[in-house]
Amino acid sequence: METENSTMVTEFILLGLTQSHTAQLLVFVLVLIFYLIILPGNFLIILTIRSDPGLSAPLYFFLGNLAFLDSSYSFIVAPRMLVDFFSEKKVISYRCCITQLFFLHFLGVGEMFLLVVMAFDRYIAICRPLHYSTVMKPRVCYALLLALWIGGFAHSIVQVALILNLPFCGPNQLDNFFCDVPQVIKLACTDTFVVELLMVSNSGLLTLLCFLGLLISYMVILCHVKGHSSERKNKAISTCTTHIIIVFLMFGPAIFIYTRPFQAFPADKVVSLFHTVIFPLMNPVIYTLRNREVKASMKKLINQHIVL
């Protein structure tokens, strides 16, 4: 079958998170409350870091970018999901589906790489403090940021290219509340074994390697501070603990989704909801709640501009 004439499907029908109206209403209310509370919090983090000259260290530069990435990531799935709760027929066009898939992987992998960069920053700060100002110069920070954006773009282009080469000529029901690689591939009118293998190698292996690399790096840092003073050791442990929590919260669901054959599991939708909606909003907040400098600066900003 010729690729150029094989894409007969022009839209996909999303089956949604659940078919129960009561469960849909409950999820809608919870997600809406969570979204309206936490999303402004992420923008507040960005504003705080940009407005306070005392938060000019590379750690806060990367934290601000993390909040931006997570806020952008949360716009890909959550708003449409909330609107779809009121739609009897949840339809998404083929082009919109591919666009959603592209940005999902573009920003997701960009965030993974950003966490790797943040781990590198903490390693230099804790294990090589005398070299920190030399290594983590502003020029280097911007170069690392550019590299992670390019890496995310390259990864996402590969995902989309593999999808675009598949023929879709029959079933068009996606058993999910958004478009993602595992569900879309299953609707192709051809044998997708090779494509699935490439996808697992691309997304799954990349996710697993980043996860293991991050855990090893933080274990190295924790081993390095064993002989340090109590104050410095406690600060390093607190920082590493925060980063490790984020690593498990982000990479756990991603590993579950992308490092196995593309077959349906009962927990898939719940894991996807956490991965695409809940976690992106929580991520920077967890960092902020465990960072005294950011919390103090945020309170100062609120007192200056909001409290009368």
Automatic annotation (TrEMBL):
PROSITE patterns (UniProt xref): G_PROTEIN_RECEP_F1_1, G_PROTEIN_RECEP_F1_2
Pfam families recorded: 7tm_4 (PF13853)
Gene3D superfamilies in the cross-refs: Rhodopsin 7-helix transmembrane proteins (1.20.1070.10)
Subcellular location: Cell membrane; Membrane
Matches recorded under InterPro entries: GPCR_Rhodpsn, GPCR_Rhodpsn_7TM, Olfact_rcpt, Olfactory_Receptors
GO cellular component, one term: plasma membrane
Gene Ontology molecular functions: G protein-coupled receptor activity; olfactory receptor activity
Keyword line: Cell membrane, G-protein coupled receptor, Membrane, Olfaction, Receptor, Sensory transduction, Transducer, Transmembrane, Transmembrane helix
Regions crossing the membrane: 25-47, 59-78, 98-120, 140-164, 205-225, 237-258, 270-289
Domain G-protein coupled receptors family 1 profile residue range list: 41-287
Keyword Transmembrane helix: yes
Membrane topology term: Multi-pass membrane protein
UniProt xrefs under PANTHER family: OLFACTORY RECEPTOR (PTHR48002)
Similarity remark: Belongs to the G-protein coupled receptor 1 family.
Identification of the protein by name: Olfactory receptor
Organism of derivation: Oryctolagus cuniculus (Rabbit)
